[in-house]
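Side project, low priority. Logging it here so it doesn't get lost.
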Amino acid sequence: MKGDVTKKLSDRSVLLFVGLLFLLSLSACATKSTLSTRASQVRLVSALEAHAVEGQCKFLGNVAAIDRYRWSWLFWDNLYGGYWDYDNKALNELLDHAAELGATHVFVNLGNGRELRGEAYCCADCRGPDGRPDTEYCEDKKGAEIEGLCQDAESGVTGAAYCADAAGDDPNACKENGGQWIPAWTQAACESRGNRWIPKPEDRKSCQKIDGIWIMKAKDQISCEAKGGQWVINEEVLRLLPLKLKKKQ
């Protein structure tokens, strides 16, 4: 009688152990590597294309990714099935790391089945509403770019552009309100009146000296769109590559 009870308890322990292993395997197998939205926008380049990217794009840094063994289905996936997914899982992680740096292109230069290393590049720039490339500049209190200032004897600003006989901070608004837009004095007009011309600020320090606000150049899509610009990927870098190769040959 006692032996039967012991045998039943032993059988239940074995079944419980097998059941726990089965649940753990299901949990492990449920963790699959998926490509994130930002990673899906990063383009892989070949060794041949890497030379063009290196010469025309901004290098952001090195990226790396490693895939770890997965234990599932009583270790079968780890020993067999998981092997075939190594490249995809490591590559997904590598692309995500590159996207985190703001990369548009990545070149995988080293790696094996489980570990990959690459170089991340940004081949894009920010374009303003007028279509011109985004730059750093000094802005006045009204949000207008400071091209240059004319200072009088008391160090006050004079000769600034304004709307006569109506309200308006720019030529279009002034015209719509029935006013006449008076442009700012040029350097020649400023100095001919005995005033001092302050050239366009080229850095933060000179901008702050005239109580301006230094606006940094957009470094990624988020900061570009925050300035009202459009983030444009330079597709010509790789599109013109075949023509360049033919010329070299």
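Brief comment: The CA atoms of residues 47 and 113 lie 19 Å apart.
Revisit when time allows.
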